[in-house]
Amino acid sequence: MAEAIPETLFEQIYRRAPTDADRARLTGIKAALGLSERDELWPVILTFDHYSWTMERGRREMLKALETLPALTQAAVHGVEKEARIKSDYAVAQIVEKSAERISTQMVKHNQTTADTQSTKRTLILGITTLVLALVFMGLGAVIAWFYIELHIGMCSGPKGLASDGLAACYVD
């Protein structure tokens, strides 16, 4: 087929060679308008055709992109959910760790206070018990010493006698 449209001009505007569909469309325009290959209207017609072709291609690509939008949106939402879950799990773990640390610190302080209180009570009870036992043993020792002196050595410097009230009495030097 002879060159029915200005293909060089087409390649300059479109930056590609015309396809059979391009040739058929532009040949239809040429026939409808009665143009020659060298007509001055071709640059305007090819420019408008290029804009029309670009707009149509853009519209098709947008529609194609819109078809994938729900899947992309769903994938993005799942990604955000996963990220949020990871961050919330990390935040909860941090809170639990801090709470456990605070609780264990409070428990240690409480146990130390309780142990100190019990230790003080036991020390006091042991001190009192030791004092009582010491007094008991001192008293017992004094009684045993008195009986020993009374029975083996004697306390009276003379013979025992009766006092005016009828009780036993003796003179001690």
Structure description:
The chain has 173 residues and is mainly alpha-helical. The chain folds into 2 domains: 1-110, no CATH class; 120-155. Helices cover 77% and strands 2% of the residues. The chain has helices at residues 7-14, 20-33, 42-153; strands at 161-162, 168-169. It has a two-stranded antiparallel sheet. Helix 1 (7-14) runs parallel beside helix 3. The radius of gyration is 60 Å and the shape is rod-shaped. The termini are far apart. The chain crosses the membrane at residues 124-149.
Strand order of the largest sheet: 1-2
Stretches where pLDDT falls below 50 for ≥5 residues?
A: none
How many individual helices?
Answer: 3
Computed CA radius of gyration, to the nearest angstrom:
60 Å
How many DSSP E strands? 2
Distance between the termini: 166 Å
Order of helices and strands: HHHEE
Helix content: over 70%
> What's the domain count?
2
Mean pLDDT: 85
What would you call the shape?
A: rod-shaped
Quaternary organisation of the protein chains: single chain
Q: Structural class, from helix and strand content?
A: mainly alpha
The main β sheet shows up as: 2 strands, antiparallel
Our estimate of the beta-strand percent is: under 5%
